[in-house]
Amino acid sequence: MLLPEPSLEARPRALLTNLQYVRAVAAYLVVLYHARLLTTLGQSLPLEFGRAGVDIFFVISGFIIQHVAARDDVGRPGAFMAKRLIRVAPLYWLLTLLIGVAGPFIPALASKAGVPDAGMILRSLFFVPYVDRAGEIHPVLFIGWTLNYEMFFYVLFAAGLLIRGTTPRLIALSIVLAALVVVGFAADPDGAIGRTYTSPLLLEFGAGLWLHRLWQGSSDPHAGVRNRMFALLVMGAAALALVMGATLWPAIPDIVKWGVPAFAIVASALMLERGDGRAGHPMLLQLGEASYAIYLIHPFVIKAVSVVAGRFFRDAALPMQASIMVATLIIVGVVGVALHLFVEQPLLKALRRRFFARRAAPSGTRLTAQAESLR
């Protein structure tokens, strides 16, 4: 087994394990947010906080991109983008094409925007934001709207890799992200591209970048032992703020309501690593590793459950409605893990072998492989 360099030897496994746990939670927040629509019980509960799963993903994405790419791909933006496409695109493209091909024959697969045409499919495959027939900025696989943000961030980061020096690169990227958001506030663009590329959500990627800088700059690898209780308090307070945000302060901007707690949750999870603050949760770890597959496949599962529930449990009592929601969460996990193990992983391995097989493995192979699984 290859080990990373000594200065990181005690940290990567715990670090990446904790972030996998947070990813699992983030994925299920999004699933819960959409599953609530299955029943009148779910619709009556205050589950708006499930939207914050996306904010958590964006903060983690900024952290991991800085953690992996800044070491391996400085000065190599093309290699960076190839890795990102291999990691993100295949499963998304597969499910998008499934809707495009099967949609005319199985209309239930399509979103409320209806069966997609060729232009919608192409824009979705190339991560180009557009306004669909329902007036939403959604691709064919509607949950893929977040990938439009991811890809735009990857392009910006790839350009930043041409800048030598971590600090100048972070400052430049931060200025660009902040400037785009300011333009969005000032110009209030109407088009899908303008609204996406100037959204305040971009700041969450930047927060993840700087969070990595703070984590990397910590000189004492055991500092978390002293701060473990503080980290737990921060995580608990952030989780409470996240859950209660829509109820207590519904009018404040989402970037504050969801983004700040998301940042605090990820930061406190990293803080716990300094004190070895983790426990073994194999099932949660597996869900974290499969979180991208869970995220992409859950609309299909929820759609299938809604068809069955609408046919057999239309007037179900509250206990049955609760059972339907719980069963949906379980089925999503099972299907997502299966998709990850039997489709996503083989695809990734084949593509990486095809395009990167000749590259020599660095000393931090284990760390890089684990970090790559964090999207």
What does this protein structure show overall?
This protein is mostly helical and 375 residues long. The chain has one domain. The chain has helices at residues 12-35, 40-44, 52-72, 77-102, 118-125, 145-160, 166-187, 192-197, 202-217, 223-248, 254-273, 282-289, 291-312, 318-356, 365-372. Helix 1 runs antiparallel to helix 3 (52-72), helix 3 runs parallel beside helix 6 and helix 4 (77-102) packs across helix 14. The protein is globular, with a radius of gyration of 21 Å. The two termini are 23 Å apart. Residues 1-14 and 360-372 have low confidence and may be disordered.
Summarize the structure.
With 375 residues, the chain is mainly α. The chain has helices at residues 12-35, 40-44, 52-72, 77-102, 118-125, 145-160, 166-187, 192-197, 202-217, 223-248, 254-273, 282-289, 291-312, 318-356, 365-372.
Features:
375 residues; mainly alpha; 0% strand; disordered N terminus
